[in-house]
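Minimal example, chain plus zinc ion.
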Amino acid sequence: MDRTVNSVEQSVILTSEWPTSGHLQQGDHRLKLEFQEDAAAYEGPTQKARIWTEGWVAQNLFCPNCGAASLGKLKNNVPAADFRCEGCAEQFELKSKNGGFGTRVVDGAFKTMRERVLANDNPNLLLLSYDLSTKDVRGLQIVPRHFFTLETLESRKPLSASARRAGWIGCNILLGKIPEAGRIHVIRDRAAVPKAHVLDLWRKTLFLREQAPAARGWLIDVMMCVEQLGRPNFSLDEVYEFVPHLQSIYPENRHVREKVRQQLQVLRDNGYLEFEARGRYRLTRSA
Ligand SMILES: [Zn+2]
C-alpha cells in the first residue's frame, strides 16, 4: 500500500494571524486534511472513499451553526442525513467527489427532497472534494439548508424498466442556483478557513430561515444579482439591470422593480447590506 501520503503532513494550524469575530473562542482548532487509511483496508474503491470521507468529517468538522467541536455520525439508514450536531440538532448530508464539483450534485429521491424543502426540513449540505491520488481533502463547502428552494432541485429521468428500482425518480441539486453567500468554504485549495470566519458567514444569512419558501427565492435571486456585480458598493440602477433576467424567472410578476427594492430593504434590515446614500448600497463586511 502506498504510504507516501503520510509523509506529507498537511495539517493546518489556525493561528492568531487569522481574523476572529471577537466573541467566539477559536482555541487551537486543527484540521488535518489527510484521510485515515487504515479504516478502509479491505473495501472496494467506492466504499473506501465513503469510509474515508465520513471518517474525516466525524473526526475533523465542527458545527458551523453552534460551534460545537464535532458532529455525530448518524446510522446509515437515516434518509438524507449523515451527521447531526449534538449541541443544536442541525443535520448534515455529505456529498463527496474525487476532484471538484460541477454545477449539479446527484441527490436522493426527488419527491422526498421536494417535501423536505417545502417543510423547511432538508439537511444542510456538505460538499467535500478530495484527491484520490494523494488521499486527502482538497476542499469543503457547506450549503446552509435555507439556501434550498424548489428552483435548486431538478428532477432526473425515471429509472428504466430494467432497473432494480424501475420508475424511481432521483434529483439533482443545482449548485449554479445557489449564491456564493450560500457556499461557505471551510477548506479552500487545501487551506482551512478560520472557524470564527465560517461561523460568521453562517450567521449572516440565518435570517433566510424566517422567510417562507417563495419569499426566500426572491431574496436569493437578488443576492445572486448583487454578487454578479462583483463589488461591495453598488447602486440601485445597477441592480435594475437584472430586471429582464428576474422577469424571465418570474414571468407573471408585474412589479419586478418594486420587488427588487423590497428585497434590498429586507437584506438591509437583516444586516446583509447597508444603505450608504439614496440609491447607493454597500455589502456588510464579514468579520
Ligand atoms: Zn451545532
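Residues 63, 65-66, 68, 85, 87-88, 90 surround zinc ion (CB under 6 Å). The two ends are 44 Å apart (CA to CA).
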